[in-house]
Design a protein that fits this description.
Layout: H1 3-11, H2 18-28, H3 37-49, E1 53-55, E2 66-68, H4 70-81, H5 93-103, H6 109-133, H7 139-168, H8 177-191
Antiparallel strand pairs: 1-2
Helix pairs in contact: 2-3, 6-7
Organism: Catenuloplanes niger
Protein name: DNA-binding PadR family transcriptional regulator
Domain Transcription regulator PadR N-terminal: 7-77
Length: 192
């Protein structure tokens, strides 16, 4: 998720200053994504530069709250209305890691898959445990947990597929150049 749009969504609830935004963001995602306060203020500066938010006068505590502008609301509405493309998401590091493991001499691909599956199962158990504890909690957090559970299940299923595919894989025997030339001559001779 874009921090930029996340902060705009939070400011749609009402004006907030940096620390309030950070706390509200982390609460919204159930603590699965912690924000550095520096990220919050850097993002607020960019949002202000782009006229999507504007600062309000400092409060009695010396904090400067921000509020969303009309342009910010339009940008937020556009973001909610636009589906995410798979190409918008970060690279799949696991797929790249397995591809490299397949082509790097001496790497035990089965061990790489098993290590990842163990970590995935452990994460799945933790998310399931959290879901049981949060059954009466807020709906947004439960949906985030469901997403993490489904992603873990999909990753474990894909790892099972990778392992089965690797076990079935039989590379074609390498043909020596002299054998290749002789075979080509035989085919040409048969064609005469």
């Amino acid at each position: 998720m874009s921090i930029r749009h996340g902060l705009l969504a939070l400011l749609e609830r009402g004006p907030m200053y940096g620390y309030q935004l950070r706390a509200a963001f982390e609460e919204s995602v159930g603590g699965t994504w912690s924000l550095n306060i520096g990220q919050v203020y850097t993002t607020l500066s960019r949002l202000e530069r782009d006229e999507l938010v504007h600062p309000l006068p400092e409060n009695d505590g010396g904090q400067r709250p921000y509020e969303i502008t009309g342009t910010g609301r339009a940008e937020l509405a556009r973001w909610f209305a636009t589906p995410l493309e798979r190409t918008d998401r970060p690279r799949d590091e696991l797929a790249i890691k397995l591809a490299l493991a397949m082509t790097t001499p001496g790497v035990d691909v089965g061990a790489v898959v098993q290590s990842q599956r163990t970590a995935g199962v452990r994460a799945l158990q933790e998310y399931t445990r959290l879901k049981r504890r949060q059954d009466t909690g807020d709906l947004s957090w439960r949906l985030v947990l469901d997403a993490m559970i489904f992603q873990c299940e999909a990753e474990i299923r894909w790892l099972d597929h990778c392992e089965a595919t690797v076990l079935r894989y039989r590379p074609a025997p390498a043909v020596k150049p002299a054998e290749r030339d002789a075979s080509a001559e035989d085919r040409e001779g048969a064609g005469r």
